[in-house]
Amino acid sequence: MAKELVLVGKFGAAHGIKGEVRLQSFTGDPAAINRYGPLSDLKGRQFTLTSLRPVKGDLFVARVEGIKDRTAAEALVNVELFVDRAVLPPPDEDEFYLTDLIGLDARDTAGVRIGTILNVLNFGGGDILEVVPEGGGETWLLPFTKEVVPEIDLSRRQVTVVPPVEIEASGDDEDAAQPSEPQDAALSSSR
């Protein structure tokens, strides 16, 4: 059976001249990114973090084994970091790995399919579900709260959605953002 990889972080810009690199962590506890053992990219390269210095929130300055100068650190810019799903702890009650939500059917309270979750976004104010409406059109951006998403059934691969009034009334949202690229975020989210 192939490993199921989950995105847990991403390297950013080089930091200084001694091979340090910025790192954004997508894990529930941002510092936990260093606890899962070596991280890998989709090319199969492995990276061992030898130190993490917090910058703010989910951002760190990291030292990576074998990276000794700025040129080597610059080669890591935008490299996404993954771990095998098996090394992640199971989510707590009412917590979900974001990767598990992507692709689920969105259904209204009557059980009628109204769309599919394309992505889970977070711009700093909480998780947002990006939903492609049934029949196409502009995506909806829905807050991932208990009021809007009162039920999640991973075994049936669906969520119940109570759309905000402006989406429900118009059938589409003229202010919705264009669809973004799907992501496999490992951030464990609770509503």
Explain how this protein is built.
The chain has 191 residues and is mainly β. The chain folds into 2 domains: 5-88, RimM (Elongation Factor Tu (Ef-tu), domain 3); 96-190, SH3 type barrels, CATH 2.30.30. Helices cover 8% and strands 40% of the residues. The protein is built from 3 helices and 15 strands. The protein has helices at 70-74, 98-101, 165-170, and strands at residues 5-15, 20-25, 39-40, 46-47, 49-56, 59-64, 80-84, 95-97, 105-107, 113-122, 127-133, 140-143, 151-153, 158-160, 188-190. It has a 6-stranded mixed beta sheet. It has a 5-stranded antiparallel beta sheet with strand order 5-6-2-1-7. Strands 3-4 form a two-stranded antiparallel ribbon. A hairpin with a 4-residue loop joins strand 10 and strand 11. It is elongated, with a radius of gyration of 19 Å. It starts with a strand and ends with a strand. 29% of the residues are buried.
